[in-house]
Request: fold
Amino acid sequence: MACLSPAPGVDDRELAAEAGALAAAGLPATAATNLGDLLTGAHPGRTDPATRSVYAPVGLPWQDLALSWLAHGQALKRGIGGRIDFLA
Reply:
């Protein structure tokens, strides 16, 4: 069983804590790392392939869509992930 990364990424740490996104995962507000720190390398993120990274977006839906589109594109390039037909 994979475990969660010790520092899930959020777009706004304070808002994620207030919205309960971290508490729902059993994590304290201080456990999260801002997404910008992960993207710039200021925080290493996953350091072991057995861990999972968690992105807990809170805020504007267009931000979620933009990030998911980038993640989807990278997954396709690397041949990872799976396809789900939501209309089937």
